[in-house]
Amino acid sequence: MIVWLNGTFGVGKTTTSRPLTELLPDARIFDSETVGCMLRPVLASVPVADFQDHPPWRALVVETAAQILGYVGGTLVVPQSVLVRAYWTELRDGFAKSGIPLRHFVLHADPSTLAARIDNDPEGTGIRRWRHDHVAPYADALPWLREEGEIVETADVAPHEVARRIATAVTA
């Protein structure tokens, strides 16, 4: 199974994924961004705004997940923002075609909570600015994300509790 944690940058996907793997049997984190990092130098001659814009990223995420699950089984927790509906559809359909069950959760926080989290991020000013710049695309995507995923409110909720709620939903 794949448990995909979607949402805007800075909402707590990676922070939630760690305790979530402790709550789900045989779970491990699959950071699909590493696939994008692998493709950057190979596809440097093909200009894109984001590595997700490369069709091979989407296909390789599906194939890599299928290979990992075929090898070790269990559950993959994928903390990755996907804010382009066509890309999400391609990933979702690819997992279905590969016979991989998928649960899609969208971590959400109100704008003031999200801004506070981003502003207090210890990673530095550059990442804070970048995360703030990507709040609007998330807001634009939220209507279709509500249709495609299960919204998990994270305001005033500790990451361990968010993970517990997701684990309960997955195992119910």
Written account of the structure:
The chain has 172 residues and is of the alpha/beta class. It is 56% helix and 14% strand. The chain contains eight helices and five strands, in the order βαβααβαβαααβα. It has helices spanning 13-23, 33-42, 55-72, 85-97, 111-119, 125-133, 135-148, 159-171, and strands at residues 2-6, 27-29, 75-79, 102-108, 150-153. A five-stranded parallel beta sheet has the order 2-3-1-4-5, with helices on both faces. The radius of gyration is 16 Å and the shape is globular.
SSE arrangement:
Layout: E1 2-6, H1 13-23, E2 27-29, H2 33-42, H3 55-72, E3 75-79, H4 85-97, E4 102-108, H5 111-119, H6 125-133, H7 135-148, E5 150-153, H8 159-171
Parallel strand pairs: 1-3, 1-4, 2-3, 4-5
Helix pairs in contact: 1-8, 3-4
**Average predicted confidence as pLDDT:** 94
* Strands, count: 5
Largest sheet: 5 strands, parallel
The helical percent reads 55-70%
Low-confidence stretches: none
Distance between the termini: 14 Å
Query: What is the element string, with H for helices and E for strands?
Result: EHEHHEHEHHHEH
Shape descriptor reads: globular
Radius of gyration: 16 Å
Strand order of the largest sheet: 2-3-1-4-5
Give the helix tally. Answer: 8
Strand content: 5-15%
The helix-and-strand class reads alpha/beta
Key words describing this protein structure:
172 residues, 8 helices, alpha/beta, globular, 5-stranded parallel β-sheet
Write a compact overview of the structure shown:
This protein has helices at residues 13-23, 33-42, 55-72, 85-97, 111-119, 125-133, 135-148, 159-171, and strands at 2-6, 27-29, 75-79, 102-108, 150-153.
